[in-house]
Amino acid sequence: MIDSAALTYTDTLVAKFAPTGWLANAHFQSIVPSLSLRRPFVAGRAKEMLAVADTQIVDCGEGVRLLGHYSSQAAAGRPASRDLAILLHGWEGSSDSVYVLSLGSHLFNQGCDIFRLNFRDHGPSHHLNEDIFHSCRLDEVVGAVRSIQRSMPDKRITIAGFSLGGNFALRVAAKAPQAGIELERAAAVCPVLRPHSTMEVLENGWFIYQQYFINKWKRSLRRKQQCFPKRYDFSKILAQRTIRSMTELLVRNFGEFSDLDAYLNGYAITGDALAHLQVPSHILISLDDPIIPAHDLENLARSPNLHVTSIPNGGHCGFMDTFNGASWADRQIANIMFRETSVAERRNAA
User: Fold this and answer.
1) Nearest-10 crossing angle of helices 98-108, 328-349
2) DSSP classification of residue 332
3) Which of 24, 157, 160, 168 has a CA 20 to 30 Å removed from the CA of 282?
4) What predicted TM-score, i.e. pTM, was given to this entire model?
5) CA distances from residue 181 to 65, 163, 173, 202, 275 in whole angstroms, order as listed
6) Cα(28)–Cα(316) distance, rounded to whole angstroms?
7) Does residue 213 sit in helix, strand or coil?
8) 3-state secondary structure of 328
9) Beta bridge mates, 66
């Protein structure tokens, strides 16, 4: 069982997410929040953030470049902010994913600067790096965060991510001190915990989820192949019908891993991966997530800096209780950020 003293975080300032009726359905919560029909409503809330967004190519070191978009309060004609949130999307999402825009706009409208970062080969960035994306490319994301911090040394930085982005956010937090990065906190919404488990769920669960990711991944591979036709021929991978078979071929032909197990274990955050966390880190997860099995929470290392809020309903990165407003997860992350910042400021003043 989970050690509640070490892992459970109870927030008394924001009500628990307790949807009723059809809103409580895990598949509804997992699918509807990201539908394109919701985008106009979220884009409306994000209008000011998007209007001042400065597109940047981030130097991550060793020749790696990642694409991002920086929106500052100062650019919007508001008082400059000391708080910066670096937001990470999920696998085959992007900095323009609906859930990223929703959180970004909510934090921006509360006075926070926002940096929406794309992983390699996500969004319109396939041309920036010749080597292909995989989920163990942690060093370049660490390098991106370090580069952003160096360009804005006065900012208090929070890193937050969804699904695979949440997994990356927690791994960046674990590595931050030795990488020379000062993070205020990390927040992860339904992060990938044990990749083996997620792959098994996608294989054996409702077919629509696996097909959704397969379609998006194949589209991404075709774009990469178009950018580097002399380097890549993904025809064998594109002919596959499961994520497992696609991943096995990718690992075998284009990766530096001995086998599929080595690759999947390489980005797991279960076991001792988070045992030495020095950065306050928060996981928000639903017990009915159809993609991330919540039972893997039991295999997280106990750490006084890791706080887990697990609730019965919410689906995968859903937590939607209004169609066009901020989600429960958006509000929760904002509360964590600004409450903890307020506490730290009072402590420093004393």
Assistant:
1) 40
2) H
3) 24
4) 0.94
5) 18, 22, 9, 35, 18
6) 10
7) helix
8) helix
9) 58
- Give residue 206's Cα distance to chain centre: 23
Residues 307, 282 contacting (CB under 8 angstroms)? yes
| pLDDT > 50? residue 7 | no
Is the distance from CB of 185 to CB of 156 less than 8 angstroms? no
Pick from 64, 45, 140, 125: which is nearest to 93 by CA? Answer: 125
Could you give the CA distance from residue 350 to residue 346 in angstroms, rounded to a whole number? 6
pLDDT digits 0-9 by tens, 106-146: 999 999 999 999 999 999 999 999 999 999 999 999 999 99
pLDDT of residue 345: 61
**CA-CA distance, 340 to 158, in Å (whole number)?**
11
Other C-beta atoms closer than 10 Å to the C-beta of 235 total: 9
Q: Which pair of tokens denotes residue 66?
A: 């990642």
Q: How far is Cα 254 from Cα 245, in angstroms, rounded to an integer? A: 14
Provide the pLDDT for residue 342. 59
**Which tokens is 269 given?**
């955050």
Would you state the pLDDT for residue 6?
A: 39
Question: Is pLDDT at 186 greater than 80 in this prediction?
Answer: yes
- The encoded tokens of residue 81 equal 């902010």
Is there a contact between 67 and 95 (Cβ–Cβ < 8 Å)?
Answer: yes
The pLDDT of residue 33 is: 87
Provide the 3-class DSSP secondary structure of residue 286.
strand
